[in-house]
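Schema walk-through. Below, the input block comes first and the output block second. Nothing else is stored per chain. Lengths vary across the set, and this one has 103 residues.
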Amino acid sequence: MERVHERQRITMDTTKFNVADYLDDDDMIREYLTSVLEEGDANDIIVALGHIAKAIGMSKIAEETGMSRPSLYKALSDNSKPQFDTILKVLRAVGGNLTLKMA
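--- output ---
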């Protein structure tokens, strides 16, 4: 007697991880940005500011910076090279500032 085994196909729905979904309060945003500033490179910092801007609301950030939403999306995307002035505007709009700590 021949025994036939049927394979059961298991499917799982997955979604793409979006860090902006987890930046839901000021403390989480501060911890995230501090970590990236300490450990990341320039591109990581730009992308992190993009995640934070999305979490807060790109329209709100656009209004506060005087920039258009498409310009912000482009400036804060992976491998972009925004001007330092743009970075400062976004950083201030998300509630941050730069301070120097001498080591």
